[in-house]
User: Which sequence fits this backbone?
């Protein structure tokens, strides 16, 4: 089970070539300019920026897909996943995210035709968004009326301070008055709203007086998991030390629980794994002392709880079978017992012989497969991570692991 880092990287690179050409056609429909709805299959991707075009097949066996741009459709939907509507009109053209800010208020606009993503489907007013390389734009739509952009600007003052200009709050006040919202402290809630997707969705729920969370159609989601990794941990002294070049190998499992956060819960190509895990090692080292007939012994037990975050990417991303690669950082909290140095046949024991760190970091990489959205089978490698740093030597663990994770349903 002596997995090497280059082995994991080789797996990732091999499947990256497959991912480039991979298609993901799912049930959907397009609405043409004349109002006709055509059912078929849409190549569903994890769109970071709003799509400038989509590929569509009327049948799964169609060889060459039809390509539609926003100017060719009223909208489209990947059924039960994402819905987009076409919009032609003015778009704000300023950059409004720090640190890329103008030195003065910039209200310039451009004319364009784009797809808007429906992220909250309200009974009276809905919320949509559009993302490109310039900025994130938010829109509201009343019924079937033309969407209206919610305006938000930021710029740097002469004192190099960020100044927000927030017309979107006046727009929200106008909608609240129009629909006679009776929510307590609605004025304060809108005044304190931020130009973020989550905050604006909450404002739309208040304006619609709609507490039904099922109308929230965003793509963010997550799942819980629990797992076990069978570790081969090599503990080693490096540098000038009498216990150097005597690696000690432990075979002890690690148990873990955590949460996966998806940027798109439907495609699940990219996600962030937060994890809490527990393991231990009990290495022992022996070395000849100044007297060849005497061997000194050093041993300790390390109990470790780790909390960390990894970024995972599915290079192959079919519905029921995925191949992933990921890397992350873990902060470890360790407690040490039996940290002692002794000679055979000598009752005297020196405790806390070396200073071992309680807080230290590790950097794991992993590769594996996800089967039927329920089980991860994976290999993991954790680079040598030191938790005793002296001038002339250090003590570290290197970990090779193979494991299983059980995945709960995505929400």
Assistant:
């Amino acid at each position: 089970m002596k997995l090497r880092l280059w082995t994991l990287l080789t797996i990732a690179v091999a499947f990256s070539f497959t991912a480039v050409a991979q298609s993901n056609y799912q049930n959907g429909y397009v609405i043409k300019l004349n109002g006709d709805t055509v059912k078929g299959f849409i190549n569903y991707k994890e769109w970071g920026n709003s799509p400038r075009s989509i590929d569509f097949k009327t049948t799964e066996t169609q060889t060459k897909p039809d390509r539609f741009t926003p100017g060719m459709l009223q909208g489209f939907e990947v059924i039960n996943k994402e819905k987009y509507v076409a919009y032609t009109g003015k778009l704000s053209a300023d950059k409004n995210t720090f640190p890329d800010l103008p030195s003065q208020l910039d209200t310039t606009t451009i004319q364009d035709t784009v797809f808007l993503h429906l992220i909250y489907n309200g009974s009276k007013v809905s919320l949509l968004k559009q993302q490109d390389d310039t900025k994130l734009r938010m829109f509201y739509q009343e019924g079937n009326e033309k969407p209206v952009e919610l305006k938000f600007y930021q710029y740097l003052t002469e004192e190099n301070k960020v100044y927000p200009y927030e017309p979107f709050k006046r727009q929200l006040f106008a909608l609240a008055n129009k629909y006679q919202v009776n929510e307590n402290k609605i004025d304060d809630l809108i005044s304190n709203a931020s130009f973020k997707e989550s905050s604006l969705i909450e404002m739309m729920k208040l304006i619609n007086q709609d507490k039904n969370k099922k109308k929230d159609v965003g793509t963010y989601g997550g799942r819980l998991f629990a797992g076990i990794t069978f570790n081969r941990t090599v503990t080693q002294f490096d540098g000038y030390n009498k216990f150097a070049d005597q690696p000690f190998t432990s075979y002890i499992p690690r148990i873990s629980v955590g949460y996966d956060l998806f940027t798109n819960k439907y495609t699940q190509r990219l996600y962030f794994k937060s994890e809490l895990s527990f393991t231990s090692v009990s290495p022992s080292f022996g070395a000849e002392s100044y007297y060849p007939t005497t061997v000194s012994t050093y041993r300790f037990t390390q109990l470790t709880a780790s909390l960390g975050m990894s970024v995972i990417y599915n290079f192959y991303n079919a519905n029921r079978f995925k191949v992933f690669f990921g890397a992350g950082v873990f902060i470890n909290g360790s407690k040490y017992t039996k940290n002692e140095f002794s000679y055979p046949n000598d009752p005297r024991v020196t405790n806390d012989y070396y200073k071992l760190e309680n807080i230290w970091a590790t950097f794991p990489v992993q590769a594996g497969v996800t089967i039927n959205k329920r089980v991860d089978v994976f290999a993991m490698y954790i680079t040598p991570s030191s938790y005793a740093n002296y001038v002339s030597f250090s003590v570290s663990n290197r970990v090779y692991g193979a494991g299983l994770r059980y995945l709960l349903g995505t929400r």
Observations:
- Residues 5-21 form the longest helix (17 residues).
- The chain is about 10% helix and 55% strand.
- Residues 221-407 form a domain with the Porin fold (CATH 2.40.160.20).
